[in-house]
Design goal:
This is Conserved domain protein. Pfam families: DUF6020. This protein is mainly α. The protein is 67% helix and 1% strand. It contains 24 helices and two strands. Helix 1 runs antiparallel to helix 22, helix 7 packs antiparallel against helix 8 and helix 15 packs across helix 18.
Length: 560
């Protein structure tokens, strides 16, 4: 390999160091809620930093080498010839879709009728109360995106209410969602081939990853607001990246503007943090990409106005109760609880009174769980805006007094995202305390006959795969929530000296916001259903990696 090729840069070393610091601390925070930053910790960090740097170096070196000197495939010629026929077929998008779906079918069948998360039982109850029981007095809650509740309820409840077959309704909804998710993945693969011009081997690896990695079909069969949002988000990201690839020229196409606007609207109305991800991402495009700026601004403004108008109109029509403000305070409340646990004698009377209005000041130190905010924040809002303002004043004072306690509380909350704990999407409906037996029979949450055995078999196989040291990384939180995002970010932030990719770094914005707002500020990570918060990141990681590979191809492909 030419010695003039710079395989890794300073950004890689910085991210490897940050990742080592977090990964070494994460297991300690998960197990005990704290981490001893001793000499042993620092030595371990140095070792992990070295290993990560070596892996990063050889991964990037392998990519460059493969682009400059393609790997000889020899006896696999027949396989690749068949693959190239599929790849270059005029129906390749639909062939990708069929391939993904065929590999998913055994899991889809085994997990019949799909898996409802606990929140979904509550959403269905709200829908039934309003449309079937005639209770219109603030039944709906904005704790769940109202459009998600309406979509799930409209598809599922007729099967239960009219046909007395709730599980058939679950399956119909789940299967439609699986079809749409598989299509979004086939569209991603198609985009990588058609527009990013990825080499056929990379496109094949991408397709097989979507088809064979069990995380994807198991996630797609979960009946949850996150699974609904995530396939929509995939298509939005494809359209967003196309704006970066064409450096804004695509905004001159009204069809593109309409599609981007449509999926921006869908992202906003189906996910609470969607408004922030979409708005900040498109604002960045408007600010940094000058070509056809008036069209990009128009797309942004129209999308946000229409989405907010739809949300406002529907909420008023259905008398939707506002969600509790406590949902946005998971991290601050955890910091306060940890402060009460370890520094209760330092809490002034005024601070206690302002905090006790929102939280149970006498018990938050006792119920504090370092990795789960729900016991502290609860599920209902107890205060008004003025009381939250008074709380924040006390929160700030206590943070200045014991900043290390606040840092430790934050580290504990995000530790799961840096761990190698098993990332297994939900396959069981055992936790369903929001199921109201007066509205939906409890039998609806129990898989019947052979499907109970087959669902347990899927869980067992997944657990066994995770126990295999070779596959453990592939099925862990840390790979998707920290390792690959940092690898991708380091790639985008390098100075490539290429005019074609000068705006690719903007793709870090939706990726970063999805992790920061969707995961880090969530009430849980590895506990209960916390894995669902990572769906949008997991779904779009292959696309982000393909964008990284396209940079390498542009940079080093010219050397062939």
């Amino acid at each position: 390999m030419n010695n003039r090729i710079k395989v890794i840069g300073a950004t890689d070393y910085i991210f490897c160091l940050l990742l080592a610091l977090a990964m070494v601390a994460a297991p300690n925070y998960i197990e005990s809620g704290s981490c001893d930053f001793s000499s042993s910790y620092l030595v371990t960090v140095l070792v992990v930093f070295f290993v990560l740097s070596v892996i990063n170096y050889f991964a990037r070196r392998l990519i460059v080498r493969n682009i400059i000197s393609p790997v000889y495939i020899g006896e696999f010629n027949g396989l690749f010839n068949a693959w190239n026929k599929i790849l270059h077929s005029k129906h390749n998008l639909w062939l990708f879709f069929v391939i993904i779906l065929l590999f998913w079918l055994p899991i889809i069948i085994a997990l019949y009728p799909g898996t409802l998360i606990n929140d979904t039982w509550g959403q269905l109850a709200q829908f039934i109360q309003y449309f079937y029981k005639g209770n219109h007095d603030g039944v709906f809650s904005n704790h769940h995106p109202i459009f998600d509740t309406l979509i799930m309820g409209a598809i599922i409840t007729p099967f239960g209410e009219k046909l007395d077959n709730w599980q058939l309704g679950f399956f119909v909804y789940s299967f439609v969602q699986e079809l749409l998710t598989a299509f979004s993945f086939s569209l991603t693969t198609y985009y990588a081939h058609r527009y990013l011009k990825l080499k056929s081997g990379y496109v094949l690896a991408m397709l097989l990853f979507y088809a064979l990695c069990p995380i994807f079909p198991i996630s797609a069969q979960t009946i949850s607001k996150d699974a609904l949002f995530s396939w929509i988000y995939v298509i939005f990201i494809i359209l967003f990246i196309e704006a970066l690839r064409t450096q804004g020229r695509v905004f001159s196409n009204f069809k593109y503007d309409s599609l981007l606007g449509l999926f921006a609207i869908l992202c906003i109305i189906t996910k609470s943090v969607g408004i922030y991800i979409v708005t900040f991402s498109l604002v960045a495009v408007c600010l940094f990409i000058p070509k056809y700026r008036k069209y990009s601004i128009a797309t942004l403004v129209c999308s946000v106005i229409i989405a907010l108008g739809l949300l406002t109109g529907v909420k008023r029509t259905l008398n939707v109760a506002p969600s509790g403000k406590q949902e946005m305070f998971s991290v601050p409340f955890q910091q306060t609880a940890r402060y009460f646990k370890y520094h209760s004698k330092d809490v002034t009377k005024a601070e206690f009174n302002s905090i006790n209005v929102l939280l149970d000041g006498k018990n938050i130190g006792k119920v504090y769980n370092p990795t789960n905010a729900d016991p502290v924040k609860g599920y209902t809002d107890r205060g008004n805006y003025k009381q939250y303002k008074n709380y924040l004043v006390s929160w700030f004072k206590e943070g200045r007094r014991h900043p290390r306690t606040y840092i430790a509380a934050f580290n504990a909350m995000v530790s799961g995202w840096f761990s190698f704990a098993e990332y297994d999407p939900l396959m069981s409906m055992d936790w369903h305390n929001l199921l109201d037996p007066k509205l939906i029979p409890t039998s609806a949450a129990v898989r019947q006959g052979e499907f109970r055995k087959s669902s347990q078999a899927v869980q067992t196989v997944f657990d066994n795969l995770y126990k295999n040291p070779i596959l453990q990384l592939l099925l862990s939180y840390g790979l998707y929530a920290s390792v690959l995002p940092l690898f991708i970010t380091a790639t985008f932030l390098r100075k490539w000296g290429l005019e074609e990719v000068k705006f690719y770094w903007l793709s870090v914005i939706p990726l970063g916001l999805s992790i920061l707002l969707g995961c880090w500020l969530a009430p849980v990570s590895t506990l209960f259903e916390g894995r669902r918060y990572l769906y949008p990141v997991v779904y779009t990681i292959p696309l982000m990696l393909s964008l990284c590979l396209s940079i390498y191809q542009i940079k080093y492909g010219r050397r062939e």
